[in-house]
Structure formats: C-alpha cells, structure tokens
Amino acid sequence: MERALTLLDCFDETSESLTLAELARRSGLYKSTILRLATSLERFGHLVRGSDGRFRLGPALWRLGSLYRRAFDLAETIRPELKVLVDETGETASFYVREGDARVCLYRRNSPKAMRHHLSEGARLSLEGGASAKVLLAFGDDPADHDAGVRASGHAISLGARDPEIAAIAVPVFGPGRRLRGALAVSGPLSRFDEALRTRALAALEAAAARLEARTPPPHE
C-alpha cells in the first residue's frame, strides 16, 4: 500500500503525466515493481496508462478528491468570497486547510492579471514558510506551533518566504467554538505587494473572514 501511494505522490501540477523511467526516478522503485503496482492501480481507476505509454492519474482520484472537498461543505460560501477578494485586490485569492504536515489549497481564484501567482486547487504545500502556513500553525491545535506575534495581530505576511518572487497575506477562518477551519489568503508578485496593497488586502481578508464565520456551518463529526 505504501509503495502504491508513493507512486501516486510522484504526480504534481507540473507533471500531470510521467513515463515509466520518470516514475522510477521519482519514486525510487524498480520498473518491474512499478508495472506490478500500476496494474492494480489501473484496475481500481487510480492510474491510467495512455497509448503513448505515459502514466496519468485516473478518474477515481477525482471522485475521491470531490468527496474530500465536499466534506468541508464550504464551497458555496467560500468561492463567492474569493471572487470578492480578487475584485478588491486584483490579486489571487485562496483558501487553505491543514492536512497532516502539509497545507492543501482547497479553493482558489486566480488573478486576471497576466503576471500572477498561479496554483492549482488540490496542490499540497509545505507548512514551512508562506502566510497561510503561518496562520494554520499559529491558530492550530498544537500549542508548540503557536506564533505569539501572528496570534496577536490576527494575520500573517510572507514576503518571498516560499518563493522569492511571491508575497502573501493570510488570516484565519474560524467555525463554531473558535475552531480553525482554514486560512484565507491573497497572494501575488512581490513587486506589487507594497504597503498600500497589503493594507487593502488585509482589510478585505478580515471582512471576508468575518462573513464566512457568520455563515460557516458546524464541522462534520
């Protein structure tokens, strides 16, 4: 099971299809092992091998991803707020949740500008650096991760932390009982993230988070 998951984890937004050799290099598995695992993964719809011999993620993962996102029951309220954030700031707006030792971009609306911070929904990113990562850690369940400065200010800013050309600002979104639901963020090229934009983005984020908290249903048990 672990080796099969390692195989699936080789794919990302920049590598939507991979050759057998690429899978072997990324996973560290023998080609014979990969072919054996691929047979089972294809049978259950988790992997597809095209006529060109390249492997792609299968439709079963889309179904599972849809179920994962549906479990949060937030899309109908979050997507309109992301649009408002983009309209008010001109930059990309995102909603992140923590999943183990990573953060997942659950919902996203990209900036209409040609030069922008682009990321696909479902992308997994590290919890090291990045405004949304700081918020998820600071307001999460583990006191050891709490950043007093972020908790006191109620937001986090990153200027080139994860990517030297990208800046972002994020705020927490809480549910009933002040339980953290995720991080709402605005991000864009560092060259455009001057103090005026940061001030405008923070005000827009705080207003959006307040509206979301007023409409967010209790988390599923």
From TrEMBL:
It holds the Pfam family IclR_C. GO terms for molecular function: DNA binding; DNA-binding transcription factor activity. Residues 60-218 form the IclR-ED domain. Keywords: DNA-binding, Transcription, Transcription regulation. The keyword Cytoplasm does not apply. SUPFAM superfamilies: GAF domain-like, Winged helix' DNA-binding domain. The keyword DNA-binding applies. Residues 1-59 form the HTH iclR-type domain. It comes from the Bacteria. This is IclR family transcriptional regulator.
